[in-house]
Design brief:
about 575 residues; mainly beta; Jelly Rolls; Immunoglobulin-like; 10-stranded mixed beta sheet; 9-stranded antiparallel beta sheet; rod-shaped
């Protein structure tokens, strides 16, 4: 039997079944490890393992006479108490005449307008990453986020509405409604918005607003919904009240979510302590006081650069003559760009003061005859008077706030002359506004001392009621022709008047006992006096539009005519 022989040679060896099994096991273990790592990472992220996340409350501040309701953890609405703590899933609703504010752990302030509903979705304060998500379900809200210096941690801030999601950067100031928002300020490029039904986000920067018209298609370029800031939004009372409120709210960022006492020094780049929002000013100027800190280096008020000392500034500015005025304070960086700005809307009391009261020598509207030189005119000043003006002369001895005033009229001071003298007295208040004038007339060197009654007061009036009937007096030829003459307002026999009154003056003979003008006897003329005058005034009815004839007659002690003259005035 033949035996088979085995020959040796260089033949490839087959893989051992045990080695192949080991390789497969290693690969499987690697894949399992990768899957476990991935799943574990997701689980840790879900439970915030490694980020040390803590749920923080938002502190609710109620305001106004209306009702603010809250829903705790999805429960029924109940009336809210001031400083109530709200956590994720809690919701707040304001009534038609109530507003409210939320103070969040990072310093973000959210102020709700009337008839507004807002839900806290997330409020997580993490060591590495924090997150705030709010849902605006109706109405409008003003939102202010802190600067990077005030809160430097990594944080995501989002506002969700039914139509869009907003991502807010640091130093944001925005007003949001379900379908629109206005960006007053925002770091970086601005606010990122993602509209429902469109996968492309857009950026809306400072000074811009974004509005989704009702029924508008949301596909395509969303920048067509962007527009410049509406100036009326800047002057909105809701916005201004919210800005003022921002400086009165402090939040403890340690995570307790409780209100902290307001600090003496604000952590904002720019602060304005005076004037406060909405105050009413009686003066024509206002003092602006505040402070600025790095990175800003300059301050500009209503377009004018003001000096700062150790970061503080104070400047008194003039206000326009309007019922409502705006004071805009801006903090400027070294390159001149605006870092932060604060606006104050102020009101001015432009009501003029009451007219001053004249007490001596007569009351306002009256005429007083005197021979005294000088004569004092005095009276009382209305409340709030800082100055008294008599015939464009401001009384130097009057102290603001005094109740009485006085004015000296004298020929030596050149503020009184023989004849009729009119004094117009005006009060000035803190705002520089003038009252209606109080007027008194002084007849100097025109007869007996005392009050001169006008027509309609029960006594004789120099313009209408004669004391004697001229028709019964002699009508003889002049006994002393040429003794009568007119010296003013223009010498001669005619004059053209441009004012509503003037003083007709002249000379006569020493033998004159009475002077008559248009059959009216001059009451204040004294016999033997060689000068005379007569008031021609629209108010007295002795002057009218057109041609006025004044027939002047002088008579002696026997009522005989000494001389006559006719003076013509065109008015």
């Amino acid at each position: 039997m033949l035996r088979r022989r085995h020959y040796t040679g260089q033949y490839p060896l087959a893989t051992a079944p045990g080695s192949l099994s080991a390789l497969r096991s290693i690969i499987a273990l690697i894949l399992i490890a990768l899957v476990l790592f991935y799943l574990g990472r997701k689980v840790m992220q879900f439970f915030n393992v490694g980020n040390a996340v803590r749920q923080n409350a938002a502190v609710l501040l109620t305001e106004g006479p209306g009702t603010v309701n809250v829903s705790i953890d999805g429960g029924e609405l109940k009336r809210a108490e001031n400083r109530l703590k709200l956590y994720p899933k809690d919701q707040v609703t304001t009534s038609g005449n109530a507003r409210a504010a939320l103070a969040l752990f990072d310093g973000t302030i959210v102020r709700l307008d009337t008839t507004t509903t807002l839900q806290v979705v997330e409020s997580e304060h993490g060591v590495k990453q924090s997150r705030i998500v709010l849902a605006l379900n109706g109405g409008s809200a003003w939102i202010s986020t802190p600067t990077v210096d005030d809160y430097s941690g990594s944080i995501l801030r989002e506002i969700h509405t039914t139509q869009m999601n907003l991502t807010l950067p640091s130093r944001t100031e925005v007003v949001v409604t379900p379908s629109a928002f206005t960006t007053f300020a925002a770091d970086g490029q601005g606010i990122s918005v993602l509209v429902a039904g469109n996968r492309t986000s857009v950026i809306i920067g400072e000074g811009q607003q974004f509005t989704i018209p009702a029924g508008a298609p949301l596909a395509g370029n969303l920048y067509r919904f962007r527009s410049p800031l509406d100036p009326l939004m800047v002057r909105s009372s809701f916005v201004e009240e919210s800005r003022s409120m921002r400086y009165s709210i402090g939040v403890n960022v340690s995570g307790s979510g409780t209100l902290a006492p307001p600090e003496t020094e604000s952590q904002d780049v720019l602060t304005v302590s005076e004037p406060t929002q909405g105050i009413t000013l009686e003066t024509a100027t206002v003092k602006v006081i505040g402070s600025v800190r790095k990175p800003a280096e300059k301050v500009r008020i209503n377009g004018y650069i003001v000096e700062t000392t150790n970061g503080r500034f104070e400047r008194e500015i003039s206000l326009p003559d309007e019922d409502e005025v705006t004071v805009l304070v801006e903090a400027l960086n070294a390159d001149g760009t605006v870092n932060e700005k604060i606006q104050r809307i102020l009101k001015r009391d432009r009501k003029p003061p009451e007219a001053p009261i004249i007490l001596t020598p007569a009351k306002a509207g009256e005429t007083y005859a005197t021979m005294h030189d000088p004569i004092e005119i005095s009276g009382e000043a209305p409340d709030g008077t800082v100055g008294i003006v008599v015939n464009d002369y401001r009384l130097q001895l009057f102290t603001p706030g005094e109740r009485t005033w006085s004015y000296l009229a004298s020929t030596k001071l050149a503020n009184m002359q023989p004849g009729s003298n009119t004094y117009s007295v005006v009060a000035i208040n803190k705002g520089g506004y003038r009252s209606t004038p109080a007027v008194i007339t002084i007849l100097f060197n025109q007869g007996q001392e005392g009050l001169v009654k006008l027509a309609g007061t029960g006594a004789a009036a120099p313009s209408t009621i004669p004391t004697e009937d001229a028709a019964t007096l002699p009508d003889n030829a002049p006994l002393s022709p040429g003794s009568l003459a007119v010296t003013g307002p223009a010498a001669g026999t005619q004059f053209t008047s441009t004012g509503s009154s003037f003083l007709l003056e002249g000379i006569t003979s020493p033998a004159t006992a009475s002077i008559w003008v248009n059959d009216y006897r001059l009451k204040l003329y004294l016999p033997g006096k060689i000068t005379w005058n007569y008031i021609a005034d629209v108010q007295y009815g002795t002057l009218s539009r057109g041609r006025n004839l004044y027939r002047i007659v002088t008579r002696d002690k026997n009522n005989m005519i000494l001389d006559t003259l006719t003076y013509t005035v065109r008015y």
